[in-house]
Amino acid sequence: MSAFKTLDDLGDVTGKVALVRVDLNLPMQDAVVTDDTRIRAAAPTVLELSERGAKVLLLAHFGRPKGERVSTQSLSMVVGAVEKVLGKEVMFVPEIAGDVVKQAVGILRAGDIAILENTRFWKGEEKNDPELVKAIAANADFYVNDAFSAAHRAHATTEGLAHVLPAYAGRSMQAELEALDKALGTPEKPVAAVVGGAKVSSKLDVLKHLVTQVDHLIIGGGMANTFLAAKGVDVGKSLCEHDLTGTANEILETADQSGCTVHLPYEVVVSKEFAANPPSLRTCNVHEVAADEMILDVGPLAVEALSDVLKTCRTLVWNGPLGAFETVPFDAATVALAKTAAALTREGSLVSVAGGGDTVAALNHAGVAGDFSYISTAGGAFLEWMEGKELPGVAALSA
Question: Could you list the active site residues?
Answer without folding.
Answer: 38, 199, 357, 380
